[in-house]
Amino acid sequence: MTQSVQTNPYGVHVPGITSQLAWLAPAPSALDDHPLVPWEEPSHARQWVGVDHAEEQVAKFEQCLDRLLQEAILPQADRGHVVVVTGPVGMGKTTLIHRCVHLVRERLRAARQGEHAAAPGAIRPPDPVVVMTGGYRNHADSVSVDERGRFATTDGINSAIRRKIVTELERRFVDAVKGRVPTDGDVFESFAEISTVLAEQDAVLLALVPHMGWRDDMGSVRTEFLRSCVRHARSRIVLFVEVGHHDPQSAHDEVIAVLGDQPALTHLSLGSLTPEDTVKFSQAARGGHPDPDAPVPEADAPRDPEAWRRSDVRQLRKICFSVAEEQRSRHGRVRVTASDLPAPTPDLASMARGPSAPIPVPAQPTPPPGS
After folding, report:
1. Is 49 within 8 Å of 316 (Cβ atoms)?
2. Which residues are 145's β-sheet partners?
3. Distance, CA of 334 to CA of 125 (rounded, Å)
4. pLDDT digits (tens, 9 = 90+) for 318-342
5. What is the largest CA-CA distance in the chain?
6. How confident is the model at residue 356 (pLDDT cuts 50, 70, 90)?
7. What residues have CB less than 8 Å from 346, skipping those under 6 apart?
């Protein structure tokens, strides 16, 4: 009997394509650099691997999820929530955010089906509205670059994010929103009106803000933007904000320490990969294969296993995908182990995606008192 050719378990389907082209099964790819979006693409839910301490951060988010939803929905709270995710470039921050969004949607769906959903006088579980201000690829250019092609001011970035949100709300609720929420003028007032509209429509906004590649040397522009996010997160509004850095040893807690103790703020952080993560990633992709893996190639193996650690999750997935494709072309059977992987090399593309060297930026307006 001829063995059937296996599919490549390291490929990622582009979100939305498979549902739109149900009659055509597109081949998964590792080259499009898409994060996992389990709330939109069902196949992504099976590809989650808890490397670089991601499982701990998911558990942390789950612990605060009930409180987060209560604060975002109860009108007397009059505040929403901001989830800040920090970590090195390429370590899965966007995928972690999408997994958190998935958890929120699942929790609300279960609540709508529960026996308490229709209790007299109870606030109904809201309908989640997801807005990806950087798109599926999580690119920040559409919100962080002004009409002159320069890095935008904090006000300019917030105005662009507002336009993305208003466009999606108009698409979802049409007449209830169109012309009601201004896309210019004071951003804070616009978010207040967005909050009112969401309450009227029994909805909650889950807005995803990509990493901006802040270019000021002391982080003052980034800090001011984070402060504005906390200010704009009114009732029914949850903002997921991504902040990346190159240095794995960076004290990422300092990124939000300047914000102080904010009850409406949750901080999730990712670290760097460990040598064991390479094996863990490969085993998960092939269904937890029980055969042992060698952490490094047996032939000419270096003494230091750290030498076989991948620089980031993106690089690890692409390398595994490439090796699996070669195995499929040779004999149709895919079983990638850590010993099959080539020695790591610097990923210049990943470095280019990260924060740029400090350059002068336009002066930012002084925020009003209490912002």
Report:
1. no
2. 151
3. 44
4. 888 888 888 888 887 788 877 787 7
5. 76
6. very low
7. 311
Phi, psi of 13 (to 5 degrees): -70, 140
**Residues with Cβ < 8 Å from 292, sequence gap 6 or more?**
none
**Tokens encoding 200:** 């009227």
Interior angle at CA 97, CA 96 and CA 98, nearest 5? 90
3-state secondary structure of 204: strand
Sign of CA dihedral 248, 250, 252, 253: positive
Give per-residue pLDDT as tens, 145-189.
Answer: 888 888 888 999 999 999 999 999 999 998 787 788 888 889 999
Q: Catalogue the E-assigned strands of 210-342.
A: 237-245, 265-269
| Best CA proximity match to 133, nearest among 47, 19, 229 | 229
Euclidean distance between CA atoms 102 and 208, whole angstroms: 12
Residue 166 φ then ψ, to 5°: -65, -40
